[in-house]
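Troubleshooting log. The previous structure file for this entry was overwritten by mistake, so regenerating from the original sequence record. Sequence copied from the archived sheet and checked twice against the printout by T.R.
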Amino acid sequence: MSHSHGSTHLGGRHRWRLAVALVLVASFFGVELAAGLWSGSLALLSDAGHMAADVVALGAALAATRIATRPDTTGRRTYGSYRAEVFASGLTVLLMLGAAAYVGTEAARRLGQEPEVASGPMMVVGGIGLVVNLVALLLLRGGATESINVKGAYLEVVADTVGSVGVIVAGVLVARTGQGWWDTVVALAIAVFVLVRALLLAREVLAVLGQHAPHGLDPADVEARLREVPGVRDVHDLHLWALTSGMHVATAHLVAAPGTSSQAVLEDARQVMQRRFDIEHATLQVEADATRCHEMSW
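Regenerated output below.
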């Protein structure tokens, strides 16, 4: 039996990005909420709602990176607490869906009405919000490709950036046409955009929680490469999954040919898993006789 270790916690590496982005977004949220209530702009209120979701999502993501690296004192968390980041991403999905549902419902309620909207504050606050979101995006972009936790926060801010652009566009349209329903139309468009981004992130979160093979890792390819290891006659009970972003796990049974050194097979297979597939933790078992191992029904 061989265990290959090389786990690196990617989310923790970008904790500072989450912290700075959280301070920026939280500082602006109150301003945008007050301006939205005063101006009567649904687009501005929807963007403030996204900002509130950002604050919670960033806070949860930041807490998750701390929990994920916390030592286990119970002895029962044999895989650590790395899944905390995935749960934080799931919370982000729920917040985005909630924001989209609220704006969509409010927009539907306003259809057919002609709300009075103050376009000036909309454009000013929307412009400031755009700057704040762009700075937060630049901070989070560096970690979004490595950590699903940071990616969830990044997508939340992306949605809010689009919301800020929408607020500015709605303000310009209302100012030029004098028709307040443009505010409702833009708010509805923002809600649809947020909904789509939330569903895409949800698919990634469910893939991790469902223990699917990680994206870009083909089980058939892994099995084929292991079969090419000198001395390996057969491969079975291969399982691949991810604990969290960048932390892939694998188990496999290798049937060795007669007269083959089990230690040599383990070492060569370990090298394949690490170098070819970047598997963070591989548990490999060598067997001399496959008939002695009863494969699991799952």
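Confidence is low (pLDDT under 50) at residues 5-9. Archived copy saved in two places this time.
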